[in-house]
Amino acid sequence: MNILAEKRILLGVTGGIAVYKAVEIVSRLVKSKANVTVLMTDAAQKFVSPLTFGAMSGRQPVTNLWQLYQGEKIGHVTLAHEADLFIIAPLTAHTLARLAQGMANDPITATALSTRAPMLLAPAMETNMWEHPATQANLHTLTDWGAQVVGPEAGRLASGAMGMGRMAEPETIVEHARIILGRAQGPLSGLRITITAGGTREWVDPVRFMGNRASGKMGVALARMARDLGAQVNLVYAAMTVDPPIGVNQIHAERAEDMLREVLHLLPKTDVLISAAAIADFRPVTTHKQKLKKGVGEDIRLERTPDVLKAVGEKRKALGMPKLVVGFAAETTDLIANAQAKMRKKNLDMIVVNDVTAPDAGFGVDTNRVTILTRDGAVTPLPLMSKEDVAYNILHRIRGLLGAPSIGWDPGVGSVLS
Ligand code: CTP
Questions:
Q1: Distance, CA 206 to ligand 1 centroid (Å)?
Q2: What average pLDDT is seen over the chain?
Q3: Is the pTM of this model over 0.70?
Q4: Which of 260, 281, 355 has most ligand 1 atoms within 8 Å of its beta carbon, as the pocket-test mutant?
Q5: Between the CA of residue 233 and those of 84, 141, 221, what are the distances in Å?
Q6: Is the dihedral of CA 68, 69, 74, 79 positive or negative?
Q7: Which among 83, 39, 271 is positioned nearest to 184, based on CA atoms?
Q8: Distance CA 118, CA 294 (A)
Q9: Which helix (H) or strand (E) holds 154?
Q10: Domains and CATH numbers, the chain
Q11: Would you call 212 a catalytic residue per the annotation?
Q12: How many angstroms is it from 346 CA to the middle of ligand 1?
């Protein structure tokens, strides 16, 4: 599943030095199978030729208002009506002002007036221009009308000076495009999902901890996919080798105890809880304030940590929330029997089990081979696939368990939806 696939995206490019970065935006969107049409102001064409954008997008850019599109229809009108999203990147102070005035004297401003698609603006300009009250007032006007803004960021500007005004990175802009499309069109729109991810750390002394091999990749893939499908996502994360995604509510929780507190706090506002974190089962009885010396540290005594899912199971009855609880089981033997026992013991609706001894599935890698078990006794083994596709399959089943119709689901590359 890929929220960008087949989406009709307009990219308005205005004249600033960051135009070269807009080429990468097109490249990323096209790689994600979006249909991209570029619209350019005259100033933008002074920085990069329309040829470059035409070659990257596979479509002729719209460079003037009088350009006919597909023979008969006027370009900006047809494009505006069909668009799923209108991105303007880079957006200069000048075009920002024209947009705020409702002007329509070039393909970008005319399309902005005609379209009802969500708008994503990525301003780029010198610091003084950005900070000027006129620019800020214009931006407010557009955000009041519903436009979303990404950046600008602080950094080195065209003048060589350091300051606020650099356009957001292409990767960040494309992430925002995913978020907006997910919210507008995703099949999980309105669902509140809390996901735990990563590996907890239990401290022995100020320099040593008990941890585990979890990378957080599976939980992050779930959070990102749920976000792209339109859900409101809380990601409660312990130690991870990857960054938590933007567009989700990020809550750091280092130890099992922290995870328990944060998850319980979120419970009344959680429709679905997915516990993908590797939560420690044991912790040192004492966390020493000073670094342990040889001869003292050899005998660390351990005690049990709280079981987060068990606590959720107990609270759930009284709260009536979450509607669904999904656990993971990292096993090395008797996968199905162990997972079934865990599902019963922790009162789960679904459990996702994987063999963590397999080199291409489990800890640290980008792929996984899992079996999904549900309370009704169904056992569904999935083939080896990316963690993204595993996430999609899990979320698809969750939606099925919630009794929602499967409208809007697109199987996507590599997904198995049996
Ligand atoms: N889990 C939890 N709290 C813990 C330990 C685990 O909520 N203290 C959750 C995990 O996030 C996962 C599920 O329980 O979703 C199963 O975790 P796992 O470590 O496989 O199972 P354990 O309950 O720890 O059982 P065991 O170690 O005996 O296999």
A1: 26
A2: 90
A3: yes
A4: 281
A5: 23, 29, 12
A6: negative
A7: 83
A8: 62
A9: strand 153-156
A10: 8-180 (3.40.50.1950), 187-401 (3.40.50.10300)
A11: yes
A12: 9
